Request: fold
Amino acid sequence: MLPFTIEKVTSIEAAVAAASSGGRLIAGGTTLVDLMRDEVEQPQQLVDINALPLSGIRVDRSDLVIGALARMADIAAHSDVQRLYPLISESLIEGASPQLRNMASIGGNLLQRVRCPYFRMLDASCNKRSPGSGCAARDGLNAGHAILGTSDHCVATHPSDVAVALVALDATMRVRGPKGERTFPVEELFRLPGDTPHLEHTLLPGELIVEVRVPGGPDSRRARYLKVRDRASYEFALVSAAAALDVVDGVIRGARLAVGGVGTRPWRMRAVEAALIGKVPGRQVFEAAARSALEGARPLSGNHYKLELLPRTIVRAFEMTGGIA
Amino acid sequence: MTISVIGQPLPRVDGRAKVTGSARYAADFNQPGQAYAVIVSATIGLGRVTGVDSAAVEKMPGVLAVLSHLNAPRLAYRPHKSYIDPATGERLHVLQDDHVRFHGQPVALVVAATIAQAERAAAALRLTYKAERPIIDSAGPEARPMCPRLANSRTPGCPPTRRAEVRIRPWPTRR
Amino acid sequence: MAYWAGSSEGIPTTMTNQEPFAAGAAETESTRGGVSRRSLLLTVGGAASMAVVPQVTAQPASESKPAASTARVRLNVNGTRQELDLDTRQSLLDLLREDLGLTGTKKGCNQGACGACTILLNGRRVVSCLTLAAMHDGAIVETIEGLEKNGELHPLQSAFVEHDGLQCGFCTPGQIMSAVGCIAEGHAGSPEDIRFWMSGNICRCGAYPGIVAAVADAAKRV
Reply:
């Protein structure tokens, strides 16, 4: 780990000022400290934001509002979240480990970095870590990598679970920076790698995530998160799906689907959703709709299995929502 | 030990030490005046170490020594092998020459007064390598069979291969 | 004396099969060597220091701090107040093991994946290897050494021995501290719950059935 200074701030203004002058914000540190130890990240100034008043969790009319510093464990255990937004609870506890969930903030979770081994290995080619150095994963070990949103420069999957749930539910986020505040859909936080994989998100310099807002609705209660992985727990997704159905009089009136483990960012599947509207929920309906999930998919040498696993996971996730009579 | 303890559900004698954290493992000894060493591992899979840039690292806080094949003491790897040594191939000779035979092979050792100083100094050590391309496809055209000299064989080289024939019959099930 | 010369004696080595690129092998500069396990050598060097300062008024956790690369950290560790000046890079794990001599907490992976370094920080289970000590001035830290009270084992400690929830014991301190947190969180209600909520702790010896039994048993008594 290279030397750094650390300062603790107690106001959002001070955090924004510090971030604007080159400071790196740190909350739980579960991603950052790990990468600093490997020297993948080499911030010279850390700004400890844990004292900021941003850890509240509340219901505002029918929206769930989560402060960016709320810990994954606390959000998942919150009675209102469990009752009204079980998809959020479920996707949170499927991620990381109990210890990490006690430490990690939801803001940090959204901004976490990829798990690609070449990103984390200083001597490997990685355009994300070292722009222009190449991508070792394309022809290397890539069983866990993406089939959607990839480019010649980067094929790493975005690893967050709760981000998939937030994208499925059309959550928005509020950020504050030197020029003031702005609010935008969580889906728009994440960039595709394109030819700039070192740019992962759309936050402007100095911007800090303040809170995430999840709109309530009939489908937010009947949404499920399915995470398919090599182990039953404490493992990243091979494929995951956040699915919700709004069924009225036996007919699908609304559908939501976002998938993880397969995209370079959480992937909203609007074509699959559209194909379900007006249909009677059932396996064959789900299977037919899930076929469009593979549009544009580009497998790598080691992850062809995801072409089979993705539609199956989508089908199973919809079945789990209880949409079937 | 008497026969009376056999078959008895006795609690582990080391149980208390292990559940209280008082059982000590290799890395738990902090003797006064003790130094710490961290291994630096090769980042190529095959080749040679061509340079160990230790000058700056030797000046880092707390660093006592940077060992590599350039200055490590010669160790007495005798030709005789004991029963735990591999019958074919050779034991790893640590820091004895510039060859790198696997990714992660120890190629240097940084010694310092505290573990944190040793870890930081080890992370800062730069090595240069001449990388070679390993042959990893045993069925490929470049692979050549390696055959151990069998104990009683006077024939050099590899014996002719024979294919074993195996017939599989279902295991009879008990009814 | 290179043993490569011995290949003519019929002792095969991996080197005899591999040839460098005909055009000359590539010169590679490594940016770093990898850092792996430690070995212990002896002589010279400083001893671990134990700084015990009686009754220091706890620093309020919310106070702002200017940028610095060293930090004065005040902690309550197992009921004892400690005050240390640290490099900002020092993990809480290394502070416990190296600066305070509390080696019960183990360094397994040093990257938050194995759980052997689990301790309670302000009552919550965390992995201490990814915790920067400088960020926790004023915190309360509980480690395995602090569980036993007045010579009496904590119910979890007795349960781990009774149910054989260990073999080599290396993961055990982390398992037990994690289990304290697991039970306090209300996540030890069934074997399925325990297996899921203890999944941040790995046991290479495979003592999981005993661990689950121990946690289930102790949960009734805590």
